[in-house]
Amino acid sequence: MGNPKRLEVLLLLTQTEWSVGELAIKVELSQSALSQHLGKLRAERLVVTRRDRQTVYYSCVSRDVHQILSALEELNGVSRSQAESRVAR
Questions:
Q1: Which residues, other chains included, contact 45 with Cβ-Cβ below 8 Å and sequence gap of 6+?
Q2: Region 45-74: what's the mean pLDDT?
Q3: Which of 2, 58, 69, 86 has the most CB atoms around its CB within 10 Å?
Q4: Are 87 and 11 in contact (CB under 8 A)?
Q5: Are residues 33 and 51 in contact, defined by beta-carbon separation less than 8 angstroms?
Q6: Where in the chain are the domains?
Q7: Is the pLDDT of residue 79 over 60?
Q8: What was the pLDDT predicted at 86?
Q9: Measuring CA to CA, which residue among 30, 32, 38 is closest to residue 8?
């Protein structure tokens, strides 16, 4: 979680499932850079994948991740809805 973009990606993946292409546009990263972040998240078992033909979709359903994000909210004094609205921009 040491990288702000990786945290942003993880936050988005807790909300819904994303393809790499969609997510790259949303977080303003190249698909290559995003794939590196997703690889690290996958290696730590923080995200799961689903393949539909040629497209790989990522999501996060880990309770641990949701607890971590809630703890970060408390530490930062920012609610998840506020953080999500920042990410949505």
A1: 62
A2: 88
A3: 58
A4: yes
A5: no
A6: 4-88
A7: no
A8: 54
A9: 38
User: Does 50 score more than 90 pLDDT?
Assistant: yes
Mean pLDDT of all residues in 68-86? 67
Cite the beta strand spans of 5-52 per DSSP E: 18-19, 48-52
Measured CA to CA, the distance from residue 81 to residue 20 in angstroms comes to 23
Q: What are phi and psi of 60, to 5 degrees?
A: -130, 120
Q: Are the C-beta atoms of 83 and 14 separated by less than 8 Å? A: no
Rounded Cα–Cα distance for residues 23 and 16 (Å): 11
Residue 72 CB contacts under 8 Å (≥ 6 apart), including other chains: none
CATH topology of domain 4-88: Arc Repressor Mutant, subunit A (1.10.10)
Residue pair 66/15 in contact (Cβ under 8 Å)? The answer is no
* DSSP-assigned beta bridge partners for residue 48: 59
